[in-house]
Amino acid sequence: GLAACDFASSSVMAQIVVEAESASLLNGQIQLDASGVGLGSIKAIVPGGDGTYNATATWAEYENISIPAAGDYNFIVKTSGYKSTATVEIFVNGTSKGKITVSSTGDWGVYVDSSPLLVTLPSGTIKVKLGFGDSNSSPDYLMNIDKFTIATPSTGLSNLTSNDFKVMLNKQQNSLRIESEKFQSAIVSLYN
To answer: Which one of 12, 31, 145, 147 is CB 3.0 to 4.6 Å from 42, fit for a cystine?
Structure first.
């Protein structure tokens, strides 16, 4: 049967992880790395090596990213590299949402998460473009990118009503089932 529940507010978490090498479109001198350092990443090669590198004003685009509910989300980019002034500009559906400064990790094989960039997103399917750049207008090796994450802020609370989801408790089978059409990709945590 349906359990009677009274929810004034609850934390609704969403986390979408996109691997950098899954780009649907690349512009500029960017190489997808399928082996070696930066396994499964967008690879930056030092100029003068094989001539392939991600340079200022190049970008990678990702289509069909599903956002479960409109609201504020953090963009976090996981990168490695030597360039201390590099940036990643985030575009959503063709509109710039801001830049993330990428810190040097001192080694191409050491990846770290960037500081989050808070962005307001619509619900539904979006297109994300990552633009690469720095303070130098000439081509330069900038970074390797492993992935980026779109996540609801951990402190964000959404007011929910019992109309937003169904809770079914079956005491005979000792089971609990939660269903929601509104929050199809939500992560649910239960606390006693």
So the answer is: 145
